[in-house]
């Protein structure tokens, strides 16, 4: 185990987007569960807070601390894989892209994924990372068991049948229950997805939103503000055969157009905000339809090279169309210039205590702003609309909600707090963000 220390907070950690920074007393990089437990015991004995961190893909200060930052990159091994049961156990610091490769080698796959795979498995489940789907969405919903180091340094296992309340709280727990050291996933036999992507007018998508949701296993769209154009994506299982995009087309469309070229457009928009509507129209005209069939994780995910800030809210699915139309009116009335498309996805109701889809069929509206441009006015205006529709913010994306709001938004919120009080009475795993969203 490697540890960097000093008498005062001097070590610095920055998240992926660059909007959150920690000046920490110590950075620990444990390589085993026993070493994680040692770090927690030592920190607690010194009165220092402990926060685990993965790849830093959260936009909120969920991992910020002035105490001990626990980096998990050396805790990233495959522990077991049972192809018959589909149960696969990996250590918490394994990045999702590596996990997907290992699953493919075993002939297995996750049922659903988000649209990037750079996060660690523990970071993805702990903040409620999700994809889009009619019957599945959340990565945390695919978790069968966890191994945790608690605030007293003890190591425990939990599942739906073993310490079930601890399991429910820790699956989406923002690192406030304990340090996750391994995750057991329920996987399934590897499968192919047939992807259809095409531009479509916004009003046509909104008018047929319910039908698009009903007809597809995975459906989402991106709307380019200041235009009437969306990019519609539909992914459905198929027996094959596989027909992936060529390497050259993948590079041109997913790397050059979606990242290099688009980064240039964002830079132009930062330099000349008044040109953003024209730039968006140019970007929308560059969209073209494509269809391909590939391994599920390769269809679910795509590279994101440019930096941005993001806010995302989960709404009752029935509120999607009126809410987005209200957002469109707000942009017109406020005169805002928004260069990154708004992303819309769906999820089925689930029973995870702090899942944004708890108890209701859900749609997600995600708002982005490129780095270097203040998101404040845009996010505040959009958030006021989301809140009016009983929205729940993504735990890892920017928002201004607090404990009082969440106490009414989540029926099992008090149950979560009761588990937290028992698991971490001294708030070893607390920071300013958990105190805001959970209380002290």
Short descriptors:
single chain; 440 residues; alpha+beta; 8-stranded antiparallel β-sheet; 5-stranded antiparallel β-sheet; 14 helices
Question: How would you characterize the overall build of this protein?
Answer:
- The chain has 440 residues and is an alpha+beta fold.
- It contains 14 helices and 21 strands.
- The protein has helices at 33-45, 96-105, 121-126, 164-171, 202-207, 209-215, 247-271, 276-285, 296-300, 320-334, 376-388, 403-409, 413-423, 432-438, and strands at 2-5, 11-14, 21-24, 26-29, 50-53, 68-71, 78-82, 87-91, 108-109, 143-149, 155-159, 179-186, 188-189, 192-201, 218-223, 229-238, 290-295, 308-316, 342-347, 362-370, 392-393.
- It has an eight-stranded antiparallel beta sheet with strand order 17-14-16-15-19-20-18-21. It has a five-stranded antiparallel beta sheet with strand order 7-8-12-10-11. The protein has a four-stranded mixed beta sheet with strand order 1-4-6-5, with helices on one face.
- Helix 12 (403-409) packs across helix 14 (432-438).
- The longest helix has 25 residues, at 247-271.
- The model has no long low-confidence stretch (mean pLDDT 94).
């Amino acid at each position: 185990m490697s540890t960097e220390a000093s008498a005062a907070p001097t070590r610095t950690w920055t998240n992926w987007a660059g909007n959150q920074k920690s000046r920490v007393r110590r950075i620990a990089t444990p390589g085993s569960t026993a070493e994680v437990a040692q770090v927690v015991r030592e920190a607690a004995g010194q009165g220092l807070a402990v926060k685990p961190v993965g790849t830093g893909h959260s936009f909120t200060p969920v991992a910020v601390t002035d105490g001990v930052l626990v980096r998990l990159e050396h805790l990233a091994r495959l522990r077991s894989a049972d192809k018959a049961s589909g149960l696969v156990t990996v250590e918490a610091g394994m990045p999702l892209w590596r996990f997907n490769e290992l699953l493919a080698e075993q002939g297995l796959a996750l049922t659903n994924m988000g649209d990037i795979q750079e996060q660690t498995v523990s970071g993805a489940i702990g903040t409620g990372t999700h994809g889009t789907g009619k019957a599945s969405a959340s990565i945390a919903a695919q978790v069968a068991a966890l191994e945790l180091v608690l605030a007293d340094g003890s190591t425990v296992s939990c599942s739906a049948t073993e310490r079930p309340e601890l399991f429910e709280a820790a699956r989406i727990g923002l690192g406030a229950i304990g340090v996750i050291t391994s995750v057991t996933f329920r996987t399934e036999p590897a499968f192919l997805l047939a992807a259809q992507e095409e531009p479509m007018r916004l009003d046509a998508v909104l008018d047929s939103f319910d039908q698009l949701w009903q007809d597809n296993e995975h459906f989402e769209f991106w709307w380019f503000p200041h235009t009437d154009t969306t990019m519609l994506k539909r992914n459905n299982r198929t027996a094959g055969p596989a027909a992936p995009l060529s390497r050259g087309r993948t590079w041109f469309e997913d790397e050059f157009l979606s990242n290099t070229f688009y980064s240039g457009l964002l830079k132009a928009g930062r330099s000349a905000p008044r040109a953003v509507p024209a730039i968006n129209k140019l970007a929308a005209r560059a969209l073209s339809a494509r269809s391909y069939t590939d391994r599920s994780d390769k269809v679910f995910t795509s590279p994101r090279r440019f930096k941005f800030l993001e806010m995302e809210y989960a709404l009752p699915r029935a509120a999607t169309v009126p809410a987005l139309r209200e957002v469109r009116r707000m942009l017109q009335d406020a005169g805002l210039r928004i260069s990154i498309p708004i992303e819309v996805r769906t999820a089925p109701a689930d029973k995870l205590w702090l899942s944004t889809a708890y108890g209701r069929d859900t749609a997600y509206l995600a708002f982005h702003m490129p780095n270097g441009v203040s998101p404040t006015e845009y996010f505040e205006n959009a958030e006021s609309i989301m809140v009016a529709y009983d929205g729940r913010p993504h735990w890892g994306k920017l928002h201004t909600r607090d404990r009082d709001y969440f106490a009414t938004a989540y029926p099992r919120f008090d149950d979560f707090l009761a588990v937290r009080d028992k698991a971490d009475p001294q708030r070893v795993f607390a920071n300013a963000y958990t105190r805001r969203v959970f209380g002290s």
